[in-house]
């Protein structure tokens, strides 16, 4: 009983929401660190960040592909490929 009271006091009525928020905050911090590291690499790093941003969600990819088709209607659609470490 005391455990439930302390959890309610510390995290409110929904302790799972607190855990989700902490997880999201941690992921956001990691993403920010990665972006800053790539920005230090100059224009190529900024291009990498843009590529990651576009390819991170299907909606952004679809919007990008629609824009490419609008600008270049007679060309076959090329897809974006994210870089990887091949050492």
Low-confidence spans: pLDDT under 50, at least 5 residues? none
Percent range for helical residues? Answer: over 70%
**Describe the biggest sheet?**
none
State the domain count: 2
What's the helix count?
A: 4
Structural description of this entry:
The chain has 87 residues and is an all-alpha fold. It folds into 2 domains: 1-40; 42-82, no CATH class. 71% of the residues lie in helices and 0% in strands. It contains 4 helices and no strands. The chain has helices spanning 2-11, 15-39, 43-55, 58-71. Helix 2 packs antiparallel against helix 3 (43-55). It is elongated, with a radius of gyration of 21 Å. The chain starts with a helix and ends in a 16-residue tail after the last helix.
Key words describing this protein structure:
mainly alpha; 2 domains; 4 helices
Question: Layout of helices and strands, plus pairs?
Answer:
Elements: H1 2-11, H2 15-39, H3 43-55, H4 58-71
Helix pairs in contact: 2-3
Report a brief summary of the structure.
The chain is built from 4 helices and no strands. The chain is mainly alpha-helical and 87 residues long.
